[in-house]
Design a protein that fits this description.
single chain; alpha/beta; Metallo-beta-lactamase, Chain A; 7-stranded mixed sheet; about 25% helix; about 25% strand; binds nickel (II) ion
Length: about 270
């Protein structure tokens, strides 16, 4: 009898452990993702939601996001900064970004300094318990176009260096969000050094890698295990498609996961 009870306790513990390891990824279209970590931490990356043509209407109610612990912004362009200011204010979330853009955000009052984490490449941080974030290179540009809330006047400010992020969850799973980027040779370093389990890569072209360049990055540089394509189809110039990406990849050991905007994947 005691042994049977012991077995049940063991089974219950095993279930608790496997549930604790589970985590979720939601895509809002463009480069906007929500990660709910194994430890229940909520991380938003490039939260372009209310103005995002691909985000389902039901998800544009920012209150429906629930709690948000951390926002990561890859660079200053509007389709990546998105709703950062409002979400940061509503949820008192920490907001991490390159150090120079952090000054722009702080000085303009977009996000209060006390919520900002200003950092730079190759210096891993633990902005929230159990989550390690490392900034990596991106081949792109970055500026912050600010609209004065009182006058409506626009002004342009420094956005620092554009970036990608490697996010390591509590269970050791590593996600590489490339931000907006062209292909660059040091993607080989990202693949070898961080060994991401999942990569979120832009394929739309025009401002970022197109399907052919993204396929070269995957096959020759990153050696990706799993890839979710992003930053395509949102606006007319972003013509790359997942089908063209898969075709360009050809015979490959990389798994391509094509998400629908709003979809939640469980890992
Ligand atoms: Ni951009």
């Amino acid at each position: 009898m005691m042994r049977a009870i012991g077995g049940m306790v063991m089974l219950a513990m095993a279930c608790a452990v496997s549930q604790a390891q589970a985590w979720e990824l939601q895509w809002f279209g463009q480069s906007a993702f929500k990660i709910t970590s194994p430890g229940g931490k909520v991380i938003l990356i490039d939260p372009f939601i209310t103005g995002n043509p691909k985000t389902p209407e039901a998800l544009k109610d920012l209150a429906a996001l629930g709690k948000v612990d951390l926002i990561l912004v890859t660079h200053g362009h509007g389709d990546h900064v998105g709703d950062t200011a409002r979400i940061a204010a509503d949820h008192e979330a920490k907001v991490a970004m390159n150090a120079d853009m952090g000054h722009t955000f702080g000085n303009l009052g977009i996000v209060p300094y006390k919520q900002l984490i200003r950092f730079n490449k190759s210096g891993p941080i633990q902005p929230i318990d159990g989550i390690t974030v490392t900034m990596v290179h991106a081949e792109h540009s970055s500026e912050v176009v600010h609209t004065d809330p009182a006058s409506g006047a626009k002004s342009v400010h420094p956005g620092g260096e554009p970036a990608g992020y490697v996010i390591e969850l509590e269970n050791g799973f590593r996600i590489y969000h490339a931000g907006d980027t062209g292909v660059f040779a040091d993607m080989k370093f990202i693949g070898e050094y961080y060994r991401p389990d999942l990569e979120l890569l832009p394929i739309g072209g025009h401002f970022t890698m197109d399907p052919a360049h993204a396929a070269f990055a995957v096959n020759k540089l990153l050696g990706s295990k799993k890839v979710i394509p992003m930053h395509y189809g949102t606006f007319p110039p972003l013509k790359g498609t997942p089908e063209a990406f898969k075709q360009a990849l050809g015979e490959t050991g990389t798994e391509v996961i094509v998400m629908e905007p709003g979809q939640v994947l469980k890992f």
